[in-house]
Amino acid sequence: xxxxxxxxxxxxxxxxxxxxxxxxxxxxxxxxxxxxxxxxxxxxxxxxxxxxxxxxxxxxxxxxxxxxxxxxxxxxxxxxxxxxxxxxxxxxxxxxxxxxxxxxxxxxxxxxxxxxxxxxxxxxxxxxxxxxxxxxxxxxxxxxxxxxxxxxxxxxxxxxxxxxxxxxxxxxxxxxxxxxxxxxxxxxxxxxxxxxxxxxxxxxxxxxxxxxxxxxxxxxxxxxxxxxxxxxxxxxxxxxxxxxxxxxxxxxxxxxxxxxxxxxxxxxxxxxxxxxxxxxxxxxxxxxxxxxxxxxxxxxxxxxxxxxxxxxxxxxxxxxxxxxxxxxxxxxxxxxxxxxxxxxxxxxxxxxxxxxxxxxxxxxxxxxxxxxxxxxxxxxxxxxxxxxxxxxxxx
Length: 395
Ligand code: PMP
Fold this sequence. Notes:
Blueprint lengths: L2 H11 L11 E5 L2 E4 L4 E4 L2 H4 L8 H13 L10 H12 L5 E5 L2 H19 L6 E5 L8 H6 L16 E4 L4 H7 L4 E6 L2 E2 L5 E2 L2 H14 L2 E5 L23 E4 L10 E5 L1 H4 L15 H16 L2 H22 L3 E7 L2 E6 L4 H9 L2 E2 L1 E2 L4 E4 L7 H16 L1
Parallel strand pairs: 3-15, 5-6, 5-7, 7-10, 10-11
Antiparallel strand pairs: 1-2, 2-3, 4-12, 8-9, 11-12, 13-14, 14-17, 16-17
This protein binds 4'-deoxy-4'-aminopyridoxal-5'-phosphate.
4'-deoxy-4'-aminopyridoxal-5'-phosphate binds next to helix 5.
């Protein structure tokens, strides 16, 4: 099928929940993808921060093929070897002790909310259940995670929303302190906000959140679904801040493209979950965790975290040069290869123009262009992308 045919049939049969560009991607390799008409694009979207190792990374392809020949699925009634291996690599490379696997970022965050409440009720008191999240945050589309999401537009039409959430402005410690009430049990945030416009947490804020949580006996939850796994130039974004959270969620890049999520916690917190408390049929199944082991090994062994830091800095430098040329660019910001360009005008036409010219870009809200290429992107590919963007800005 060509682009036109896929789009026409898609409109007929697929539920209309996405504002999609009128093309279908049918093939990918590294930082390139091809549409159904054979046109090649440089991919600075990476499936929205999923393809950190690039498309069809040979280690991931090989691991999935080998696992598919052996065992797709068996159930968490039994121990699963690749799941155990992936948990071990995550624990050995983070501040956490135990891992629960699920299928998406929203599901990981649901698990984190449940774990925080379970822990708090057990250790802090039956009346501790409220979770403070940040304005402009994004945590998912299930009822609890869309409620945790600090943007009204995601709430509209879904009321009544689950109780027990409060919101505080990001990077404002005084406001956060004021939001803490008698029922608060946890603070949850993205160390670098993604959907909210690519907004890095300030060092004094993130450190201050840890101190506030310690002082008030609250759990500190980081949602690293988008900013984790090398994206910001460290394996986990919290590592930029010299703090250790109590709970962390992951998804997106964890499976190298295979759908998987994870919830990590310190031992004492993790122990609040006992057999029967939480579950997921597909969570951590052999196929996706084999992919996860391969993807995470590639990130760690192929220098992708350092490349993300180094090439990310170069990308920011190149975008700063554009800022001096184009008045409507207000700010360039980000960490590693999670970069945003805030404009004084809507960016949707720029995204469309870049697509026509062979560059896939993403927005983060109406005024921010978001750059999330694979972590093994080269300086030359950054030059190509920025040259296309400059043409799009000129036109
Ligand atoms: N948390 C963050 C920070 C995200 O960026 C996203 C997805 N954009 C999610 C959670 C939800 O992940 P999923 O779509 O896999 O449910």
